[in-house]
Amino acid sequence: MTVGLMMRVLVVVLWQVYPAYLVSPNPLYHHQHQHVTQGVMMSLPPSLPSTTTTEPLNTTIKGARSAVKATTNILATEHLTDCHLTILTEQHPLATLVAWDLSSALHAHQGFTVQSLDEEVLERESTWRRSVCDVYVIVVVTGTEFVQHANHSHYHTSLTHALWNYHAHYLLLLLEAYVEPSDMARLYNLAKTESVLILQPHKDGQQVLLWSHTLYPPTAAPTLLDSWRSDNFQRGNKFFPSQLDNLHGAVLTVATFHHPPSVVYIHDDQHEELVTGRLGVDMQIVQTLSQALNFTIEFAEVSHDELWGYELPNGTWVGLVGKVYNEVADIGACNVFLEMHRWKQVDYSAPYNFEHGCFVAPSPKPLLNWQSPAFPFSWDTWVSVGVCLLLGGVILRVLVALSCGAEPREFTSLSYSYLYMLGSLSTQPMELAPRTLSVRVYMGMMWLAGLILTTAYAANLVAFLSVTLMSQPVDTMQQLAMSGLQLGGHAFWTTQFAASIDSTVRSFVNRLETEIDLNALFDLVEDGHFALIENEQYLEVTVGARYTQGGRATIRVVPECLPTYSIGLALQKNSPLKTHLDPVILRLVEGGLVLKWRGEVLDYFKSLYAGTRTSRVANEGFVTRPLTLNQLQGVFYMLVLGYLGAAAFLSLELVLYSRHTNSLSHHVH
Ligand SMILES: *[C@@H]1O[C@H](CO)[C@@H](O)[C@H](O)[C@H]1NC(C)=O
Ligand SMILES: *[C@@H]1O[C@H](CO)[C@@H](O)[C@H](O)[C@H]1NC(C)=O
Ligand SMILES: *[C@@H]1O[C@H](CO)[C@@H](O)[C@H](O)[C@H]1NC(C)=O
Ligand SMILES: *[C@@H]1O[C@H](CO)[C@@H](O)[C@H](O)[C@H]1NC(C)=O
């Protein structure tokens, strides 16, 4: 038999015994808001001392009553009475009494719910539902269940949903000294909630102490804000001071790593490992935030194997996201893309920048130049020329044989006919000229065709020799998929590929190799084995700085990129910092500072490589260069081919001639 059911039975009995309840508004069942939860409602055992009893009250009860008055006073001064108010009260006579008093004091206001502080209610999502403004008054005597819940129901223990409302105002009434304010303030969820007040009646029953917790540093003890005595607050402090608008120099840890141009480390000249400064938009943002909110930055270095981080097979997160998720760092800043997968581990600030994800692939290679003599004509032109030559020789020989007039003796040789044809096609001056009209007309036409062919070939050959021909560059994702290049990049991209609506990009999921150091990967791209994916500016800066020689880059960013990502800071899940950082970030973006910083760091980076670049610029330009042997090698190959052909025919002739002379001498004998 559950307690809840017993309560409900009791309520029904009460309603029948006192029909007046049906007429007068019942403070406990004040359903003004539609969203008031249907659940275990508290009702009060009739045996409790009521407000009207005249018997002298002991100090515990007096203290509890003062706490109620202090609470209603706070709610009224902070204008919280119109909020959605939830009173959670423990199943203890004293707590129930306080809940009763609170209900009667508040019943003139908007709807509120009174629920018992037990596991069933705490584990219910509707208890923690968020509206524009929520207030929880938690009445605690032993506090066991509440402590357990507040310390364990967060995203580290259940990734689906933390059963807590981090944006609500909390008023904790600690009625007896089982739990101390300092224990309460350190509970996980309370340490992430900005608006928490702890009320503790003093033993003398006269005053109520008002404690406020400190979020940063998390180890700080709660501070005594005020005390309630003889129906008044003594100091008149603000009840919910906005402690995150000024962190008073508290240390916040920022996880980051060198990743130009977002984060550029400046190293000491003597000691390479010593970092003397950090530049880049992300660092400027963090530094400006530290000035605006008055906190001190401590850097947590992320290893270059892990970068933004990924999940190990055993579920541990590493890298920048891991540092923030495991609460080693408060802020992660290094070109963090705002996307859904890592959002389970971290929260994001407002975006301040945007970027593409792009591939970098090997630059197009110069084509092998032995082919260059063949480039001026397309293959079908070459075939036509070949056919012309093949038929031309035979036709000439047949014409000469059939013609009536006498031609020079040479024309009766087929091989001479071919040579003559080749000569006329390549406009060589020929000593012999045909005599008969038919052959003359034929050859005249041949010479005309030869003139056009050679002129066209010569002109085009000059054009092809003076530019270096390149292989087809990788311009699209489709070409990349066909290119046979291996793909490398951070593990993050696997999730992005998998979520893509483009089937080509989705097919990259299984091809992406993630276990490779980025620096080594660039060299593999240069060697022509890999294509690497990273954010566009990083690629452009790296290509410009490390892979550009003589004005020509050896690797090249593929023009077709993944869609744009927003960039923000990574914050701990439900971090109270978010609501304070976001307005500052938005102001920085709207003020144009982000664009300015971006330009500055790019200029700085360019100046680093300026010395090497000027000498390169001098070397390039559109100066006419002499043709290199490399460009002309095809011609020499043809010569060598000619020598070899001639040598082959010579040896053939020699063999045939010696046979001929042998047979002749044989004949003589
Ligand atoms: C005051 O009364 C409550 C309930 O009537 C009792 O539990 C408590 O022990 C009393 N406290 C003192 C100090 O007498
Ligand atoms: C809250 O949880 C932390 C660790 O999760 C633990 O160290 C601490 O003792 C807990 N506090 C209480 C009051 O249970
Ligand atoms: C920032 O914090 C330091 C250290 O507590 C304090 O001295 C300083 O006055 C604060 N600055 C501002 C502008 O509040
Ligand atoms: C997961 O594995 C890593 C290294 O393989 C280890 O450092 C870490 O402690 C492991 N985490 C858990 C929860 O077992």
Q: What would your notes on this structure say?
A:
- GO terms for molecular function: ligand-gated monoatomic ion channel activity.
- A hairpin with a 2-residue loop joins β7 and β8.
- By secondary structure, this protein is an alpha/beta fold.
- α3 (about 60-75) packs parallel to α4, α8 crosses α18 (about 580-590) and α10 packs across α11.
- Residues about 10-55 and about 615-620 have low confidence and may be disordered.
- The radius of gyration is 44 Å and the shape is rod-shaped.
- One 2-acetamido-2-deoxy-beta-D-glucopyranose (NAG) binds next to α3.
SSE arrangement:
Elements: H1 3-17, H2 20-23, H3 59-77, E1 84-89, H4 93-106, E2 112-116, H5 119-122, E3 134-140, H6 144-152, E4 169-174, H7 181-185, E5 196-201, E6 207-212, E7 223-229, E8 232-233, E9 251-256, E10 264-267, E11 275-279, H8 281-293, E12 296-301, H9 319-325, E13 331-337, E14 346-348, E15 353-355, E16 357-362, H10 379-402, H11 414-425, H12 437-466, H13 477-482, E17 486-489, H14 492-498, H15 503-506, E18 512-513, H16 518-526, E19 530-535, H17 536-546, E20 548-549, E21 552-553, E22 555-557, E23 565-572, H18 578-590, H19 593-608, H20 610-619, H21 629-668
Parallel strand pairs: 1-2, 1-3, 3-4, 4-5, 9-12, 9-13, 17-18, 17-19
Antiparallel strand pairs: 5-6, 6-7, 7-8, 10-11, 13-23, 14-23, 15-23, 16-19, 16-22, 20-21
The chain binds 2-acetamido-2-deoxy-beta-D-glucopyranose (NAG) (4 copies).
Domain Ionotropic glutamate receptor L-glutamate and glycine-binding: 252-353
Family: Belongs to the glutamate-gated ion channel (TC 1.A.10.1) family.
InterPro entries: Glu/Gly-bd (IPR019594), Insect_Ionotropic_Sensory_Rcpt (IPR052192), Iontro_rcpt_C (IPR001320)
